[in-house]
Backbone:
């Protein structure tokens, strides 16, 4: 939150005119699917070791079928030292014992398919773990060897190579380079790691790297998965020569300094970190060369025939026209729409980002996806309860200004109700259907995000959105597992929000999500025509979603201070109670009528 999208400079389409046309009635599943992100560490712990696992996920899949989603995406479950919560993969073809076995993965996929749920897994191609066999081989091999050429090893600058090869910092804080000790005990080459020091970046100019990842894609497709969420999809190719970069250095949206650091900074000594978002000039993000990789991946997935197996890009790329390049017909199927997630709670900004998103995606024939929360950002039930004029924070500590919980939840429900009526696909993050807030008072000793440690605690990081799910109020760890202490502590407030406290309770956030998802499906909203309604104003977002049979749903979100009079129509669902038939502030309604 906190940055108004570039899109606000465009004039919105006039009310009544089509912003986005209908999708074909027989459009493939992924063009309108709702995909639920399961964070395996925190979803359900079957063996009681305090960490979630695959059998836990399998056992809870009926809950997701009943919620009404189409697919799940699982964050990494591969063998990993877990220095970045599994985004540091040591073996792409096996399951970390903490999560189970390959047989457990097969059972999970089979059970999901039996329930009508598709399964996407995470693939992490920008870097491996330093415990990956390839990196061990690289360390044991001399400079210039084929083993080192799988990564980005370079000589240092300065008379004795004591300065890093360029000034790039790490996304997590500190330098983006680390120096190795050669076999003879002398200080040697440096390797690039845009994330943690234990996440060496791969060299995508090396054909062996490309062949290996195509083989990994096939490995998981052969086991039946329906697609991949591609981690740091904009990072694989770096600009030729790895030039210094004196552009913007900040944390996501927060500009720390206008100048890049001299040498990428000494590790862990300051808060300069690399912005994850590509700008037109950054040499580490969004290089044109990435697209050939995704064309090759698409051919691999297409070779499996129907139903389509898909690729979804995690690419923090601006402007939207650059992001759309990732979803051209022969590349990925979807890309996360982080501009929507980052929009402030402001009617004009929301309207602008919706319109520009569908415009650029329509331009390449791709569906737009919508997302409000994931494992890397402050949960939207808390984010929307913060001062909207401030930049979006990377985590919240007890010392930071605390979100207004009531306001945040009210807006979060309204935002989700708006999102789930939009055409295209949508991603949900586990626990948002319970209205879970961020854990904003987690004691520091529990924090595991490398960002927290690399910045000496100056940046809280992402642990607060990764806390284990509450299933039942009156059980140890709120039903997350049969015993043991959860790997991250749950706030007390999670008890009243547990699934068993909301199940079947009218007006609960869980029942709201179930209604929204059922109505979205019934009215084919993911495939509908989108047109702004005349009620749009500085404080109102209103649109009509019209299905192929001509029936339409009018969606109105009131962001203004005064309750809004509604047209006479059947109320399908509201994100909060109406006020004597009028729509209160921070509330969304779906209305059904042919003439509303
Ligand atoms: C994006 C993932 O979502 C995040 O959790 C991870 O830390 C980085 N990529 C590095 O893999």
Residues:
């Amino acid at each position: 939150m906190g940055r108004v999208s570039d899109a606000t400079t465009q004039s919105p389409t006039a009310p009544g005119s089509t912003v986005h046309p209908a999708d074909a009635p027989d459009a493939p599943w992924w063009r309108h699917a709702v995909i639920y992100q399961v964070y395996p560490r925190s979803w359900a712990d079957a063996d009681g070791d305090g960490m979630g696992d695959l059998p836990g996920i399998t056992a809870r899949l009926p809950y997701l079928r009943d919620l009404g989603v189409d697919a799940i995406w699982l964050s990494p479950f591969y063998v990993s030292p877990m220095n970045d919560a599994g985004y540091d993969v040591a073996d792409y073809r096996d399951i970390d014992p903490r999560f189970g076995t390959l047989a457990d993965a097969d059972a999970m996929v089979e059970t999901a398919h039996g329930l009508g749920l598709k399964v996407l897994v995470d693939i992490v191609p920008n870097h491996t773990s330093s415990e990956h066999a390839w990196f061990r081989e690289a360390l044991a091999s001399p400079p210039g060897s084929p083993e080192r050429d799988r990564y980005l090893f370079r000589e240092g600058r300065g008379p004795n190579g004591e300065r890093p090869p360029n000034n790039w910092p790490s996304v997590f804080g500190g330098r983006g380079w680390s120096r190795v000790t050669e076999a003879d005990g002398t200080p040697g080459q440096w390797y690039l790691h845009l994330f943690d020091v234990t996440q060496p970046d791969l060299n995508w100019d090396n054909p062996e790297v490309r062949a290996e990842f195509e083989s990994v894609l096939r490995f998981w497709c052969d086991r039946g998965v329906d697609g991949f969420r591609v981690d740091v999809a904009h990072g694989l190719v770096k600009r030729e020569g790895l030039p210094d970069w004196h552009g913007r250095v900040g944390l996501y949206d927060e500009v720390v300094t206008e100048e890049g650091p001299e040498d990428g900074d000494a590790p862990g000594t300051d808060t300069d970190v690399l912005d994850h978002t590509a700008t037109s000039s950054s040499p580490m993000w969004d290089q044109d060369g990435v697209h050939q990789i995704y064309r090759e991946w698409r051919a691999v997935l297409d070779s499996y025939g129907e139903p389509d197996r898909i690729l979804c890009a995690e690419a923090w790329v601006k402007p939207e026209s650059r992001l759309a390049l990732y979803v051209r017909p022969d590349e990925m199927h979807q890309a996360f729409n982080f501009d929507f997630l980052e929009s402030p709670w402001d009617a004009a900004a929301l309207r602008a980002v919706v319109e520009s998103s569908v415009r650029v995606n329509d331009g390449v024939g791709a569906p737009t996806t919508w997302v409000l929360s994931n494992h890397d950002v402050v949960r939207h039930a808390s984010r929307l309860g913060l001062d909207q004029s401030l930049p979006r924070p990377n985590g919240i500590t007890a010392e930071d200004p605390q979100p207004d919980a009531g306001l945040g939840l009210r807006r979060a429900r309204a935002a989700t109700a708006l999102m789930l009526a939009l055409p295209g696909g949508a991603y949900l993050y586990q626990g948002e259907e319970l209205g879970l807030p961020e854990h904003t008072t987690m004691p520091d000793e529990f924090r595991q995000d490398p960002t927290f440690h690399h910045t000496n605690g100056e940046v809280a990081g992402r642990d607060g959105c990764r806390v284990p799910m509450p299933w039942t109020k009156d059980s140890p760890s709120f039903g997350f597992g049969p015993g043991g202490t959860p790997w991250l502590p749950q706030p007390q407030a999670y008890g009243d929000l547990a699934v068993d406290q909301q199940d079947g309770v009218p007006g609960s956030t869980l029942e709201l999500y179930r209604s929204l998802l059922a109505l979205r499906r019934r009215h084919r909203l993911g495939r509908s025509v989108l047109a702004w309604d005349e009620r749009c104003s500085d404080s109102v977002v209103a649109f009509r979603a019209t299905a192929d049979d001509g029936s339409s749903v009018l969606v109105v979100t009131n962001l203004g201070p005064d309750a809004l009079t509604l047209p006479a129509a059947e109320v399908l669902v509201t994100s909060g109670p109406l006020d004597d038939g009028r729509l209160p502030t921070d509330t969304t309604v779906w209305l059904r009528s042919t003439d509303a």
Remarks:
- The CA atoms of residues 449 and 463 lie 6 Å apart.
- The chain is about 20% helix and 15% strand.
- The two ends are 33 Å apart (CA to CA).
